[in-house]
Amino acid sequence: MSATYRAIEISKPGVFTEVSRPLQEPGPNQVRIRVEACGVCHTDSLLIDGALPNLTYPRVPGHEVIGRIDAVGANVTTRSVGQRVGVGICGGWDDTCLSCLRGDFVNCTNGVLTGIMIDGGYAEAMIMEARTTVTIPDGLESVKAAPLLCAGVTTYNALRNAGLRAGALVAIQGVGGLGHLGIQYARRMGFRTIAIGRGPESEKLAKELGAHQYIDSGAEDAGASLRALGGADAILATAPSGKAMSGLVNGLAVRGKLLVIGIAPDPLEVSTGSLIFGMHSISGSTTGSVQDEQETVEFSLLENVEPMIEVMPLSKAREAYDRMMAAKARFRMVLVTEAGARNSASLK
Predict the structure, then answer these.
(1) To 5 degrees, how large is the angle CA 92–CA 189–CA 166?
(2) Alpha-carbon span 191 to 233, nearest angstrom
């Protein structure tokens, strides 16, 4: 076994550097993971573009990670060598803040973000606390499982926590990186699923993913079209446009909810009356806890929810990131290591 591993560091904002690092042993309560695949997510830009204060460089990005444990530290009893695991953005929590005491670990006051505050999965190896890993079922290919640990859990959680009943009318705004998963989850959860895209070219894909109907927001008023259908009990807003999201409020049914998971550069602008009359609400939803990640991958396997991906080798991390940021990916970029490529080939 090599005493070193390759990693893609962000040496300073905007600068990708491929380096060779010495392989470290995991400490108490930690595991070492030989990375097979790592998704490239827009949230990576928080580190890569230096969008947060007090960041430390160099740092390895990546928080949609699948790999196999090759070493365990002292006190680790729940994980074993050879086990395939995943790592999401929740890289640690303090267990003492009010959110943690309430079991809301994803909103920990002192939460640790994988690939932003600690080294992530743009690498051949990484070390994590054992409690932050999830077990990956055998039926999920590593490159397909990776995006489920951020894009997947974000859409899955927003929908399953919305308080909806089977048969509810749910609209998914956007047929992209988040939306193409949201359509699948909504259909598998038993909702009447309406996809909202821009242009007729997305209709065929939306229906293949499970949408019962498609609304072309470029050709018609999406809010009015939803009202004509009786109004949406929930709208999952995934497209990065505050203006487009704002117009959807008028398409909500009585007590309907606009669930915002897409980060837009422009603000939401809605009239107070559009919220008061009909008792509509707008809420944001973030990723999920480690348990949420575990349940996401299990549900995805059970109901055959899969991300559409483009795969690139680890050495092309810069290219993959730029393609994702330019919205050219269809729909999630995934980096694969040599170990991941070998394991994928052995399954074919």
Answers:
(1) 125
(2) 10
- Please write the tens of the pLDDT for every residue from 116-175: 999 999 999 999 999 999 999 999 999 999 999 999 999 999 999 999 999 999 999 999
Rounded to the nearest 5°, which phi and psi values hold at 35? Answer: -70, 135
Look at the domain 4-149+288-346 and name its fold: Quinone Oxidoreductase; Chain A, domain 1 (3.90.180)
| Residues in the chain with pLDDT values less than 50 | none
Ranges of H-type helices in the chain: 45-48, 98-101, 142-145, 151-160, 179-188, 203-209, 222-228, 242-246, 272-276, 290-302, 317-325, 338-346
Element (H, E) at 237: strand 232-237
- For residues 44 and 13, the answer to whether their CB atoms sit within 8 Å is no
Q: What global pTM score does this model have?
A: 0.96
List the one residue out of 334, 319, 310, 344 whose CA is nearest residue 37: 334
**CA–CA separation, 148 vs 33, rounded Å?**
18
Nearest-angstrom CA–CA distance, 285 and 10: 28
Least Cα distance to 144 among 294, 313, 305 occurs for 305
Q: Which CATH number fits domain 153-284: 1.20.1250.20, 3.65.10.10, 3.40.50.720, 3.40.1190.10?
A: 3.40.50.720
Can you tell me whether residue 23 is helix, strand or coil?
Answer: coil
| Backbone Cα Rg of the chain | 20
CB 176 within 8 A of CB 154: no
DSSP 216: E
Of 341, 346, 342, nearest to 311 (Cα)? 341
pLDDT given for residue 162 in this prediction: 97
Whether the link from the prior residue into 331 is cis, omega within 30° of 0, is yes
How does pLDDT run across 267-290, given as a tens digit for each residue? 999 999 999 999 999 999 999 999
Alpha-carbon 312 to chain mean position: 18
Pick from 37, 133, 132: nearest CA to 86: 133
